[in-house]
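User: Can you fold this complex?
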Amino acid sequence: MRYVRNTILTVLVVAFGLLLYYVLPRHDVARITGTEIIRMDFSALNRPFYAQTDSANTDMPTRDVRLINTVKKRTMLLGFIRRDSERVFVYRNEDTGWIWPPYFKFDSSDLQAEALANVSSPGNEQWVVITRYGWRNRFFTIYPNMIAIKPVEGPNVTVVPWFNIVFFILLGAAMLFIRAMWRQFRERAIDPRMQDGRDAWDRVDAYADERRSRVSRWWKSWTGK
Amino acid sequence: MALLRLIVVLFLLCSLVYLCVAWYSRSVRHEKLEKEWDEDHPDGGDKMARQTFITQGMIDYNDSIRPKLLLLIYVVPAIFVGAMLYITNAN
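Assistant: Here's the predicted assembly.
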């Protein structure tokens, strides 16, 4: 039973982590080399990784997708460490509209124009900070979706991911709040109604206390406090 | 009609959160009132008086600003949508 529970929990946590990895905004330092429009014939494999046609249009099974070609600085560890080397990187540029993910982006055409306005050639580079979400995968032909372009002086800019910082703080707060709510619900609504359940919970609590005291004893053996 | 769908889904989600948080807030207040009474009356006191005290406390709670603040659960996501709309699309 324990294995089943742990497995399900692990799968859920990993799935949630991947979802955040896909949906949260990330920043790339790059220079734009050009733009392109290709026709995409989606399959069930890659359709979920695209948004939909521009807002207020009819969504057809096949449509044109705006792409933006860049040369970007390579990164490591989810983009936290930037390296000196470069690679080519292609973004798509699609409206997310009123639909998932909640970027409410309606300005794809403007963004495409902005990208063209910042095209530069080697030797005369115009570096930009690109905000995007999503993944690039060659086997499924999927691209990250570009959200914003900000021209910068040089490639060595520091980008503080304010949105993600606030997001994770709020996520932590929400989780603590849900935990408090669940405890209150258990104490006030479940336990009084079923005595058997309370016994089970007591046992779980006792087990948790026992574990905790063991951990704290181990901790004391290290700190001497 | 994607906007309509967003509004409906967001409203349902917010309502779910609102119901949960409203229940939680009332429950915490109820528990606090019970404990207050029990502290003042270590012998338990009159059962009816206890019930009246708690009911009066809950009426006071309902009239206070706190339950009205919970309506922010509907307001904040709307502000978020507006802010994201502006940040993403402002040129």
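Chain A touches chain B through 20 residues (CB under 8 Å). The beta strands of chain A are 26-41, 62-76, 81-92, 127-133, 145-152.
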